[in-house]
Design brief:
Spore Coat Polysaccharide Biosynthesis Protein SpsA, Chain A; 2 domains; disordered C terminus; 21 helices
């Protein structure tokens, strides 16, 4: 019957964010029914990180986990739409993205914040029951602040106790105070201070207004603007639910972050956007990014699908902490780096692939059939309905060019029998010198290591570079794409060469967001930004920087992808 709409990002904003969010979700779920939903828009979390709800799933109650649905708006979409906003989150776009993707069967939408909880009068078992007899109108409620030391004292996974404890704390301390709007010219439509923590109306109202005004991309007053337009739509009337409901807010001011933000960031114009606001409708027909495919998923379903299954081994087998392979003390750095075990490296590669779009195009560039097969199987498990991984060598044979979302460059190297024999002969020769006292053991290790490394470097590069020179010209990289390098690190010569070759490629503008005409003659500097480095695995993000002669600020944005993929297009209500 009700959709609760809120938003945030995985950035640890202000004081103890992860507990505040879990505390709120658990308490909100406690006053909802199984037919309700909590819609969380995760906005501009770095694409290589999980969304905020995914990172706290194990601190949620089973009921909260089942009700939370996540809409992800990735970083490159923010770059495209932020215009002159200094904020890392566009609040109005976030809320609208959830509103247009809410369950059309639900009568009510409540727009609130992710650190809020609701306390119902003992007359009501849940919020749906309270609202069952409510008339269609726009409802506001005052919020009551709970100090950090108070909510921090409670167990986030015990919402029933928390709701009762905070209710009793407010009453016993005389702190159950409703702060009304102190300004006469605003009070008729903004009943209480800080209206954004509880704005409730029929779903139909939000759609008639086209949600929050997305042109307001600065700080403050978006909630007041919505309140004014709701008041106009509702026949110059705003209602409340005092006596039936309290709205509690978990304070997070100790960090000082909010105080710094509120005094430094440009605010939306209060006069123009609130006092003088006289139109009901805002935004264009595609408000809430309704024309963009955004990843939208049930938190419970995704966690259940992706959760690792652990096997329990007998103590006789595992208790002695056996290693999976014998320790190799040889100092052959190139061979050690590039001669990886595919099945082990795939365990860590999975962490990067599971956060990319299910519709992403993966392209493999390499010559190790075992690794290619493993990645193909891994990607099929992660995205069974997405496009299969493509092999760049096969595309080259067909004279095709590819624009990958993820380019996997495999630097695997295995010594030939001939190389192994040469190293073994040198080892034996040096050993005889040691036995005759002509060199020390340390000198033997150094000589053999240098000889082996020189052989490996030459063979490694001779195997990689010709393949790259043939294949990479067929790659058209897109800003925001990932380049994942296997069997290499940022100190090795092939990595330096790979960067040189990649940065000479043309940066392709996604054809589905071309704005401002053809850009085929633009001069762009392509850059690779490291995101993740783990022994033999590197994840790099492709970014673009316009040539210094470029004067159009908006041109860079045309290279950013408007759709993350993997979600569902939104049908209008």
């Amino acid at each position: 019957m009700i959709s609760i709409v809120t938003y945030g990002r995985n950035d640890n904003y202000s004081y103890n964010l992860v507990k505040r969010i879990a505390f709120s979700f658990n308490c909100l779920a406690e006053v909802l029914t199984e037919e309700d939903e909590i819609l969380f828009t995760d906005y501009n979390t770095p694409d290589h990180l999980p969304t905020l709800p995914e990172s706290i799933w194990d601190t949620l109650t089973d009921k909260a986990l089942s009700l939370v649905k996540v809409i992800r708006i990735p970083s490159h979409v923010h770059e495209l739409i932020k215009r002159d906003s200094p904020l890392p989150i566009l609040e109005n776009v976030s809320r609208n993205a959830a509103i247009v993707r809410s369950n059309p069967k639900n009568r009510w939408i409540l727009s609130t914040n992710p650190d809020v909880l609701l306390v119902l009068s003992s007359r009501w078992r849940n919020l749906t029951e309270l609202l069952h007899e409510a008339t269609d109108s726009f409802y506001e409620m005052p919020r009551m602040d709970i100090p950090e030391s108070v909510w921090s004292s409670l167990d986030r996974k015990d919402p029933k106790t928390n709701i009762r404890a905070l209710r009793d704390w407010l009453i016993s301390n005389g702190a159950a105070v409703a702060e009304t709007s102190p300004d006469w010219q605003f009070q008729k439509y903004i009943l209480f201070d800080g209206p954004g923590d509880f704005q409730l109306a029929p779903r139909e109202y939000f759609f008639r207004l086209r949600g929050f005004d997305e042109a307001m991309n600065k700080y403050f007053h978006s909630d007041s603007n919505l309140a004014k337009r709701m008041w106009l739509l509702n026949g110059s009337r705003t209602d409340h639910l005092l006596g039936s409901l309290w709205v509690l807010h978990q304070d997070h001011y100790l960090s000082g972050e909010w105080a710094r933000t509120v005094t430094r960031i440009v605010h939306n114009d209060l006069s123009a956007n609130v006092a003088l606001q006289n139109t009901i409708e805002a935004n264009g027909a595609s408000w809430g990014l309704s024309d963009v495919c955004l990843p939208t998923f049930s938190l419970c379903e995704k966690i259940t699908k992706e959760r690792v299954n652990f096997c329990r081994l007998p103590e006789s087998e595992a208790g002695g902490l056996p290693l999976s392979q014998e320790i190799d003390w040889r100092t052959h750095p190139i061979h050690r780096l590039s001669n990886y075990r595919p099945e082990v490296l795939a365990l860590y590669l999975r962490e990067s692939l599971r956060v990319v779009s299910p519709d992403a195009l993966l392209v493999y560039l390499g010559q190790n059939a075992a690794t290619a097969k493993l990645i193909h199987r891994l990607w099929n498990d992660i995205s069974p309905s997405g496009p299969p991984m493509s092999d760049l060598a096969i595309a080259g044979e067909k004279n095709e060019s590819l624009s990958p979302d993820v380019l996997l460059v495999d630097c695997y190297y295995d010594r030939s029998e001939y190389a192994q024999k040469r190293i073994r002969l040198v080892q034996e020769q040096m050993q005889r010198r040691v036995e005759k006292g002509r060199m020390t053991e340390r000198e033997l290790v150094e000589e053999v290591s240098n000889f082996a490394n020189n052989i490996d470097v030459e063979a490694w590069q001779n195997g990689l570079f010709p393949v790259w020179e043939r294949s990479l010209p067929r790659v058209q990289l897109i800003a925001g794409a990932l380049v994942i390098v296997l069997g290499c690190n940022n100190y090795a010569g092939p990595y330096v060469r790979l960067k040189e070759m990649l940065t000479t490629l043309r940066l392709k503008s996604p054809n589905h967001i071309r704005r401002g005409g053809d850009d085929s003659n633009r001069n762009v500097n392509l850059e690779l930004v490291p995101l993740y480095i783990h022994h033999r695995l590197m994840v790099l993000r492709v970014t673009s920087k316009a040539d210094v002669s470029e004067t159009s600020e908006g041109w860079l944005k045309t290279r950013l992808r408007a759709a993350f993929g993997g979600g569902r297009r939104v049908s209008r209500a």
